[in-house]
Every structure is written in C-alpha cells, then in structure tokens.
Specification:
This protein has 275 residues and is α/β, with parallel strands linked by helices. Helix content is 32%, strand content 19%. The protein contains eight helices and eleven strands. Strands 3-2-1-4-5-11-10 form a seven-stranded mixed sheet. Helix 6 crosses helix 8.
Length: 275
C-alpha cells in the first residue's frame, strides 16, 4: 500500500471517530483504498448525486423496497439512510467481500433495514476467483421482492451473456410495475459521431461478433474486456424486451462521449416492468 494512502486513511479514521461521537447514525467515509475500487471521487458527493438521480429520474419513494446491484462500498446506501422510512428497505450485493463487510459494519449496524451480502460471482477483471458465472447467477431474492432495482456502473463491466442474465434477473425480482434504474455506455448515431470527432474520453471497438453466441458488446481493452463495455441502443431495447420489460423505456444520454447536455456521466436507462 502506498504511504500516501496510509496517511490519508489515518486522517480519515480520526475524522470518522470524531464524527461518530457527534452523529452516531452518520455513515462514516470508507478508507480511500476502498473508494478507489469503485471509481474514486468524493464518497459523499458521488453518493448524493446518485441518490438525487434515483429520486428525480427513477421515482424512488421513501417506502420503496430497493435492490442495489453492485453496491460497492455503499455510496448510494449512505444518503438513503436519511430517506427510506416505514416499509422502505434497502438490499445490496457485490462481488467484493471486503467492501460488503465494511458496509455491514458501518451501515447495517446503524441502520438494520439496510442489508448487504457478498456473492461469489466470477469477473475476470474484478473477481477472477469467483465460482459462478454472471450468465448463470441467480439473484438471492424472491420473485417480485422489490419496487426498484438500481444498477449504476454495473452493465458497463458486463459482457453480453452476463448482461442479458442480469436484465432477466432484475425483471424477475421486480414487482409488477417496478422500475429498473441502470447506467450503460450506449452506442448510437450521436455517440458514434462524437467518438469519431474525439469529443469524449472513451473509444469503444467492436468485439469480433459471433452471431451464434450472441456476442454483441464493444470494449476498450482486449486484455481487460470487462474494464469498460458498451452496447448499441438497439441491442439494449431488444434485450430489455426479452428480459420482460415493457415498452416504457427512457434513455438519457451521458457526457462520456462528449455531450454538452446530460444527466449523468454514463447513459441513464429507466425501464419499467409491466403492471
């Protein structure tokens, strides 16, 4: 571990100790090395932005049952501890057991209706030791258990078969009329033109397509394909329909490709399961 990271975590620990003494329900900021694993940035600022979009764009209500796929170190959960109430419930899962353990110690102990679990899913980039493929993984929840499923910065790391299964499982665990709130890198006429003009900070290339296997994803790095994955908008609409979502799909283009008008960095997709 770098010395700068050790010093930063030490300072953070002192700050969290003082904060806990004043606000026992306040979720502390995780060690910097944990935040780095989920993309970095300011833990609280990113969490506030995520929760604000979930409320304003996804329609989250205080009494909703929410599933957070790829919950990481609880950036979304932390601000929602001040919002969900009554029958409101948060469940999150992630493939990084160390991050999940941190959430259990620092969030669940303060807010018992916020629960986290680690899942043993394989990811060549994030968890090569995982024993279950993403394409065969069954979410550990009952049918119709949630009103809203959130998946931010998740499908941007899933290849085709895994992504299709996660869409199917999201639809399964949603109650009729429930909402999927997810982010993607999507390729359409506009984003392709912006990429060609070098307006954005990512360039995706098509993976060699095997029609029989349904390989339709686009990647940035051949050596680490799951580091960043993009799909065409047409494929996504078809995949959502196959998974069980209706025609009520909204897409807000992100800034990743160089757009000047956007809601989030990644493309935001909101899909609803038929009532």
């Amino acid at each position: 571990m770098r010395l700068s990271t050790v010093v930063r975590d030490l300072r953070l620990g002192i700050s969290n100790a003082l904060l806990a003494g004043l606000h026992p329900d306040q979720v502390p900021v995780p060690p910097f090395r944990f935040v780095e694993r989920v993309g970095g940035g300011d833990y609280r600022d990113v969490g506030e932005a995520l929760s604000r979009n979930l409320l304003e764009q996804g329609g989250l209500r205080p009494t909703d049952r929410l599933l957070d796929i790829g919950c990481g170190v609880g950036r979304l959960a932390a601000p929602l501890t001040r919002y969900l109430r009554g029958e409101g419930l948060y469940e999150g899962f992630d493939i990084d057991p160390e991050l999940v353990a941190w959430c259990q110690r620092n969030i669940t102990r303060r807010h018992p209706r916020f629960r986290f679990r680690a899942v043993d899913v394989h990811s060549r980039y994030y968890r090569p030791s995982g024993s279950v493929s993403g394409s065969a993984f069954t979410f550990p929840y009952e049918d119709g258990a949630f009103d809203l499923v959130s998946a931010t910065s998740l499908f941007t790391h899933l290849l085709t078969r895994d992504a299709e299964n996660y869409l199917r499982e999201s639809a399964r665990v949603l109650a009729p009329g429930g909402t999927l709130f997810a982010t993607f890198f999507l390729l359409d006429e506009e984003s392709r033109a912006l990429q060609k003009a070098k307006r954005g900070d990512r360039v995706f290339r098509a993976e060699p397509v095997d029609a029989a296997q349904g390989q339709v994803h686009h990647i940035m790095r051949a050596d680490q394909p799951e580091a960043a994955v993009a799909y065409t908008t047409d494929w996504l609409r078809q995949a959502l329909a196959r998974a069980g979502f209706g025609g009520d799909i909204r897409i807000h283009g992100g800034s990743w490709c160089g757009r000047t008008t956007f809601v989030t960095y990644q493309d935001l997709v909101i899909a609803r399961k038929p009532a």
